[in-house]
Design brief:
The chain folds into 2 domains: 146 residues, Rossmann fold, CATH 3.40.50.10790; 100 residues, Beta Barrel (Elongation Factor Tu (Ef-tu), domain 3), CATH 2.40.30.90. 19% of the residues lie in helices and 28% in strands. Strands 7, 8, 9, 10, 11, 12, 13 and 14 form an 8-stranded antiparallel sheet that branches. Helix 1 links the parallel strand 1 and strand 2. It is elongated, with a radius of gyration of 21 Å.
Length: 267
């Protein structure tokens, strides 16, 4: 049998033992599971940040990987636990929109189930730590190839949000937003080269990107192409346009962060 991989994405951080406890629960059920930490540094309660992080990563894992996502501000409320099959991957998460970007990407082969088979849970179930008592046990049993049908019936009324999309206001202005700031200070926008072909086409036109107090007028194809401290636009590995700086934090230089409006002015 192929190895069983479980990825973990949470807003728990690593100062507390919560992540380690969830790993222990999974390994008690499947000692042969290989557990991969995607990230535990999602901002507290930030469902959309987790949605982008998971959507960016899951396709790089082998088929039948189980992705456990616990960013759960509604823990202990009637919100449902979900088991989602998307393509060849499986996800375990709360029903709070944390897979909205995956839902947008996977238009075929998507099945969402409400987890109702409570005999897979770790008893007693705490009202404050469903990551340990609900989601980790289900992920553990899934990694042992328990059939998804045994956990619950398909549903269609699950929570999903439309990820923020850039807007073309006229032939000279595209507006977007910063959706993520990485540890290097690069500002990832929700704008792709397809949204501004005038800049990234065969005959690029002059432009300026307005973000916070900065105006960016250069595009680079690699971070090291920019002068140290220079602000520039670059297409990042996720396919979105980033505002970056060579060996400096663009976020600090620009004085902005996640949620900042970005305007691309074409001339």
């Amino acid at each position: 049998m192929a190895r069983s991989i479980v990825t973990l994405t949470t807003d728990f951080g690593t100062a507390d033992p919560y992540v380690g406890i969830m790993k222990g629960v999974i390994l008690n059920i499947n000692p042969d599971a290989e557990i991969v930490d995607l990230t535990h540094d999602i901002r507290a309660y930030d469902v959309l940040e987790a949605a982008y992080a998971v959507a960016q990563a899951y396709r790089y894992f082998p088929s039948r990987t189980v992705h456990l996502v616990v960013v759960d501000p509604g823990v202990g409320t009637p919100r449902r636990p979900l088991l989602v099959s998307a393509g060849t991957h499986q996800f375990v998460c709360p029903d709070n929109g944390v897979l909205s970007v995956v839902f947008a990407n996977e238009t075929e082969g998507l099945t969402v189930r409400a987890i109702e088979a409570s005999h897979y849970y770790l008893e007693p179930v705490s009202n404050t730590f469903h990551g340990r008592d609900v989601f980790a046990p289900v992920a553990g049993w899934l990694s042992r190839r328990v059939e998804v049908e045994k956990f619950g019936e398909p549903i269609t009324d699950y929570v999903k949000y439309a990820p923020p999309a850039p807007k073309r206001l006229n032939d000279k202005l595209v507006k977007g937003v910063v959706i993520h700031v990485d540890r290097f200070g690069s500002l990832r926008t929700n704008i792709t080269p397809h949204d501004v072909p005038e800049i990234f086409g065969a005959d690029p036109k002059p432009f300026k990107i307005m973000a916070g107090k900065a105006e960016i007028t250069n595009v680079r194809s690699a971070y090291a192409e920019g002068a140290q401290g220079e602000l520039f636009a670059i297409v990042g590995s996720t396919g979105f346009i980033e505002i970056s700086s060579n060996r400096a934090s663009a976020a600090q230089v620009v004085g902005t962060g996640k949620g900042t409006e970005v305007g691309i002015v074409l001339s």
